């Protein structure tokens, strides 16, 4: 059970809190939560994931050059990988050897905010370019549960979209992308009928354990605030069994039952490879998954001209089904040697110039610059639209890192195999609430 993990996480959080409270800002006199340009003779260390090293090194180099010119400090980038990163970060924070600034996944942030491990940046938030237009769900991941304080800065985002085979849709007489869920269902029926003779054909492959997608349909009817659970003071109440959420899940199940073959009890990890084999007309996945489908090594490059992406249609035209917004945040450890310089690097790294450069490769951290992202490539249009629309995020709780997400996988898989949605989701809700409320 993940409740044991949750308890361990709580103990770790307590230790992190004690470490944060007992440590100072090293030998730096800059007040916590301030920006500093006084870096002469100093070296500032920043942890950044190697996604940037491989994907947008020019953005990092431009920010590094601007920072060093402005502050007189030397910037040391230490490239990180996601594997075992949480363990490494926990160790660094507990030992007092944390960097001056760092990147982390937006689903990891709440644990460290609760532990007091990050500098409160609320007072300088307005000095960060486009902070009033930060993407809603990404910004929320770096805030206190009530949204009044900012401890982490949005970096970049990713969103799920509908990826489909234009050739298979056109062969079935569908030449215009669906604008609503009703239109999508009608189009899928045509595609399914056209390919009735193809073994194990799925007009829309919806793995039962892909709870991010399934919950998005629930959010489409319930709303994006409080998906899975909502906070009331220090306690959490469940929303998985709310009738409006369940109705959205029923829509997902209807599509799954009619148009998806063989995926009720598996997750989405191999859907790209399955689509590459040719018997899947559409999937719901991150925008980059289209590249995986046509990858020369693991996919089918012959499909390169046949794929298209659109936001997952919603109940009304122009209102997509809310996407889960994943991504990365940036933060300054409370006991960094030079928190003011660390914060200043983050300000520069996320300014308009650097986020505009980043927009060639990933969804930027704010709505203002999504137009630059969309203009960079036609393939970015769908994910950009999804990010600008209503999005949802996991419960902003420090206990989420220990929550039993397998309960959600099990619940939606059960729905996909015919279990009453309210019953299956009720079981998951009991488990999740037990974790969030540390019961």
From TrEMBL:
GO-annotated molecular function: maltose binding
InterPro entries in alphabetical order: SBP
Signal peptide (UniProt feature, chain positions): 1-20
Keyword Transport part of the UniProt annotation: yes
Keywords, ordered alphabetically: Signal, Transport
PROSITE patterns with a match to the protein in the record: PROKAR_LIPOPROTEIN
Gene3D superfamilies per the UniProt record, alphabetical: Periplasmic binding protein-like II
GO biological process, one term: maltose transport
SUPFAM superfamilies referenced in this protein's UniProt entry, alphabetically: Periplasmic binding protein-like II (SSF53850)
GO terms for cellular component: ATP-binding cassette (ABC) transporter complex, substrate-binding subunit-containing
Family assignment from sequence similarity: Belongs to the bacterial solute-binding protein 1 family.
Protein name: Extracellular solute-binding protein
Source organism of the structure: Actinocrinis puniceicyclus
């Amino acid at each position: 059970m993940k409740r044991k993990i949750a308890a361990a996480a709580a103990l770790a959080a307590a230790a992190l809190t004690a470490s944060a409270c007992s440590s100072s800002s090293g030998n730096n006199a800059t007040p916590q939560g301030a920006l500093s340009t006084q870096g002469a003779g100093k070296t500032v260390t920043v942890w950044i994931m190697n996604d940037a090293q491989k994907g947008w090194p020019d953005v990092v180099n431009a920010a590094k050059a601007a920072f060093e010119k402005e502050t007189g400090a030397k910037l040391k980038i230490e490239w990180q990988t996601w594997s075992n990163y949480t363990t490494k970060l926990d160790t660094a924070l507990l030992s007092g050897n944390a960097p001056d600034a760092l990147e982390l996944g937006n689903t990891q942030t709440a644990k460290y905010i609760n532990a007091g491990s990050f500098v409160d940046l609320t007072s300088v938030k307005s000095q960060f370019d486009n902070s009033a237009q930060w993407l809603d769900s990404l910004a929320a991941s770096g805030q206190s549960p009530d949204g009044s304080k900012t401890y982490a800065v949005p970096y970049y985002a990713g969103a799920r979209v509908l990826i489909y085979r234009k050739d298979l849709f056109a062969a079935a007489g569908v030449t215009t992308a669906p604008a609503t869920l009703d239109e999508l269902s009608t189009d899928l029926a045509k595609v399914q009928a056209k390919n009735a003779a193809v073994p194990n054909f799925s007009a829309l492959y919806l793995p039962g354990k892909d709870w991010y997608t399934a919950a998005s349909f629930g959010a489409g009817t319930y709303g994006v605030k409080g998906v899975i659970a909502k906070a009331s003071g220090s306690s959490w109440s469940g929303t998985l069994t709310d009738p409006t959420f369940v109705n959205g899940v029923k829509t997902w199940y209807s599509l799954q039952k009619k148009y998806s073959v063989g995926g009720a009890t598996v997750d989405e990890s191999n859907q790209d490879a399955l689509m590459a084999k040719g018997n899947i007309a559409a999937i719901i996945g991150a925008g980059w998954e289209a590249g995986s489908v046509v990858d020369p090594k693991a996919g089918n490059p012959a499909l390169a001209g046949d794929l298209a992406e659109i936001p997952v249609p919603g109940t009304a035209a122009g209102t997509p089904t809310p996407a889960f917004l994943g991504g990365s945040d940036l933060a300054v450890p409370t006991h960094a040697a030079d928190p003011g310089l660390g914060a200043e690097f983050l300000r520069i790294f996320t300014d308009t110039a650097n986020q505009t450069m980043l927009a060639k490769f990933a969804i930027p951290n704010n709505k203002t610059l999504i137009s630059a992202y969309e203009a960079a490539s036609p393939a970015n249009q769908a994910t950009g639209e999804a990010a600008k629309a209503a999005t949802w995020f996991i419960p902003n709780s420090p206990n989420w890192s220990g929550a039993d997400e397998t309960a959600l996988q099990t619940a939606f898989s059960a729905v996909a195999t015919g279990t009453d949605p309210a019953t299956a989701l009720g079981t998951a809700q009991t488990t999740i609430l037990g974790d969030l409320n540390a019961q």
